[in-house]
Amino acid sequence: MNIKWKELWDANPDIFSVSGWEECPEEVRKGWHLPSQFDYFSAGDISFRVGIIAAQGVYREEDFLLGGILWGGHLGNGSRTLIYYVAKEFSPVFLGAVSQIGGMLFARTVFWREKLTPNLYVLSEKDYDKGFFRLDTGELHPGWEHWQRELNPVAWNHLMVINRYFESLAKRRVRAVSEKNKITYCWGNIQIAEFKKKGNKFELSTKVKWTRNKNIASKFLKLGWVDFSGNLNDEFCRAINGILELLENMEINGSLDSRELLDLKIIYDREFIPQYFGKYLEVPWYPRDFSDLIESRQLYFFQRDQSIRIIKPILEKPSLKIVQTLLVFSAFENYAKHHQGFPGYSQLEWNRKIFLFCEADYMEELRLCQSWLKQPDKYPLMIMPKEWRTEGFKGVKDNFIAFGIDA
After folding, report:
1. Taking a C-beta distance cutoff of 8 angstroms, is the pair 287, 295 a contact?
2. How far apart are CA 73 and CA 71, in angstroms?
3. Which is it for strands 190-198 and 182-187: parallel, antiparallel or unpaired?
4. pLDDT digits (tens, 9 = 90+) for 287-299
5. Helix 61-76, helix 318-338: angle, nearest 10
6. Which residue range is the domain that position 204 belongs to?
7. Could you say which DSSP state residue 33 is in?
């Protein structure tokens, strides 16, 4: 169905602060890399620009939010700009993210109802707080007592043998992550082995999804078991050692993916991170409704004293990552309004900030993003040192204090 948006705007002049709307030509939209699934309109003068981004049907919130911000940035070019988001539905999380936009760019939301009169309705910020978003935290990470209940005595004893083996590899940065029906053993965030429950029994195997090299995968894909002597079979242990040696060599020679390397630097840093953020925490739950934004490879959680601190690295697409951060911030803030503590850690409080770690190349774009945030202090920026891949976060302390980590 083709909506005649301009006729709708012209028929409702009291809804918008200006009139004389013009649609953004397709070639301009492509040139500015605006999400193509939405429609864009503009009006106003040089001193005050106004834009509309309209969604006809269901949309991805991060695309819609980003489209409006990009549209506003191009329209305003440094001058004060207002963006209207027009859609049939808005979630409380989306409304919360929109409410964080301020400064040179600010935004409003407009409900559109095709068959109702009036068919446009502007939401005020008071309306934003009326909605309730239930952050579905899904399953919490089970503890060892869960596994003792789930497994028969023999399987439980075997799991203890397996776990002691992997605990002996902690100095090589291996850790266990417990889930509902399995335990994964990780090097950074790379899964190297998996203990999987099958009925009252289990299956132990190495994990080789981290490599696309078929020869490497074939060499290291092995099953594990506890033999009659009460130890893990040698073939499995040799495979784990081989995997670790290969990954460690990849780290040394610089062939490890930047994201996987940053996982190691953040999770296992011994100086800067523990001093300013505290102890690393696993993501305490398995998100469902919000799993595309809140997941372990996008956020890092730490406990310092009785507070939760969150780090979000930005290694690519800074504008999109900022938009995702706004939505995550909104989700957690909405949760905090209706619950005690933090999801999965009811005894701890979130400090209401998300710390952004970025490389110097993205600093200018991120500073520009901060110019349209109502409260940029909620998103402190840290420039990672140029040598972070080899030196980690050495020498970064003085630089980071300036960004308000203790504010």
Report:
1. yes
2. 5
3. antiparallel
4. 555 545 555 457 8
5. 120
6. 144-253
7. T
**Backbone torsion region of residue 103, taken as left when φ is above 0, otherwise alpha when ψ lies between -120 and 50, otherwise beta:** left
Among residues 227, 253, 279, which one ends one of the domains?
A: 253
Asked whether residue 137 is assigned to any structural domain, the reply reads no
Distance, in Å, from the CA atom of 248 to the CA atom of 245, rounded to the nearest integer, reads 5
Using DSSP bridges, classify how beta strands 349-358 and 49-54 pair: parallel, antiparallel or unpaired: unpaired
Residue 137 has pLDDT above 80, yes or no: no
User: Which positions ≥6 away from 201 have C-beta within 8 Å?
Assistant: 152, 155
Structure tokens at 241: 């050692």
Q: How sure is the predictor about 121, in pLDDT bands with cuts at 50, 70 and 90?
A: confident
Cα 22 to Cα 42, 103, 169: the distances in Å are 5, 25, 63
User: Cα–Cα distance between 255 and 134 in angstroms, integer?
Assistant: 41
Tell me, what DSSP letter sits at residue 285?
B
Beta partners for residue 140, in sequence order: 285
Token representation of residue 56: 């006809």
pLDDT tens-digit map of 159-171: 999 999 999 999 9
Q: Tokens 């102890």 appear where?
A: 279
For residues 216 and 296, state if they share a domain: no
- Per the listing, tokens 């169905």 go with 1
Confirm if 72 and 81 have CB atoms less than 8 A apart. Answer: yes
C-alpha 302/C-alpha 351 separation (Å) is 11
